[in-house]
Amino acid sequence: MKRAIGLIAGAVLLGGCASSGPLESRPSPKLPPLPGEPAAGSRPVPVPEPLRPPPLPTPATPLPPPVAAKPPVAAYPGEREGRTLVARFIPPQVKDRDAWAGDIFGAFSALRISPTPDNICAVIAVIEQESTFQADPPVAGLPQIVWKEIDSRRERLHLPRLLIDAAFLKSSPDGRSYKTRVDTLRTEKQMNELFEDMISEFPHGKSLLGGYNPVRTGGPMQVSVAFAEDQVKEKAYPYPRRGSIRNEVFSRRGGVYFGTAILLDYPAPYTKPLFRFADFNAGRYSSRNAAFQSAVARLSGQPLALDGDLLRYSGGAPSAEPSTTLTALQRIAGRIALSRQDIEHDLRLEKTAQFAQTPLYTRVFAQAEAAAGGRLSREAMPQIDLKSPKISRKLTTAWFAERVDARHRTCLGRDPSSLP
């Protein structure tokens, strides 16, 4: 259509250029000639019409509004640039700083986590807290821990002590007796290798120790072996494996990779990194769930331990035994218009981001905020006492999170440009 209009307009303009104006279509009335005018019968002189304004141009079709250019997506740093970026934040006294920087950036790159100062310093702060940048940190009193756990297992299985003592006098694959290896244990990696040898070599190794290891976290970030084994089912491990995933946890690169994954590779709905550090210690979304428990306690009038666990678990799966949080929710089921089945269905999502979009979560907070007359916090410090064979004094999740948070701020201060 636009092309047709343009052709017509062009034809009109070209026609106007061919003559001085349109001629009359009929002769004018005969009038006496004026002086100097040709006599009648002569060829009449054309009389031009009055000048007319030029035709208005054909209105053009309006142009679409300009499309705003999308900001260019920043390219992910290459390995050399990434190492240099991470190294700026690693404490100057750390040995093998370049190797640590490479392993940290390697984890970020494999997981496609943005290497921002906040994220880099979050990983560095946890490494400092958990191992002071030691790939295989020593554990005080490790031989006593192992003997205690072995004896406990022997009693549960009703095995004679003489049988166990004789087994530990046997030579192990490295040439030393198992008893000597236990007595000289210093690190978790040594202990892990010892237990694997005992399980495969002892006559009753699998029944005594199969699936059981007294220290279940390890490496420079003290990662749960169970988490690492679940992680590789969802995302391929980016490095060549040297044995089992358990072995990789006790290596520097594997420990940093799995530690970075559990710390940063999930959407955490928090206003402060403090609560992400609490989750690292207590389990993903524990800080969000503790705030939810606080809202449930407010609505039900039933005191709850704000530990971030909304269900009871057995062997990693929800237990049939109701938790105190579930019991409290059943008391207010009418107020939130949810059946017990609905409540239990939503609670099973407590370890995921989706829980915050469930009817249970939204209705509990809506009712609690209506009763309180204002908005309630969606994050709270989990109230957990830390228990482990490696812990000899009373520690809590709050203690851990606050220590790591302080290290995080110190790390950011190593590069003034990263400060807000």
What does this structure look like?
This is DUF1615 domain-containing protein. It comes from Zoogloea oleivorans. About 50% of the residues lie in helices and about 5% in strands. By secondary structure, it is mostly helical. Strands 1-2 form a two-stranded antiparallel sheet. A two-stranded antiparallel sheet has the order 3-4. The longest helix is centred in the first third of the chain and has 17 residues, at about 1-20.
Offer a quick outline of the entry.
This protein has 420 residues and is mainly alpha-helical. Helices cover 50% and strands 3% of the residues.
How many strands in all? 6
Head-to-tail CA distance between termini: 58 Å
Structural class: mainly alpha
Overall mean pLDDT score? 83
The shape, in one word, is globular
Radius of gyration: 40 Å
- What is the makeup of the main sheet? 2 strands, antiparallel
- β content, as a range? under 5%
Organism: Zoogloea oleivorans
InterPro entries: DUF1615
Biased composition (Low complexity): 19-28
Biased composition (Pro residues): 45-69
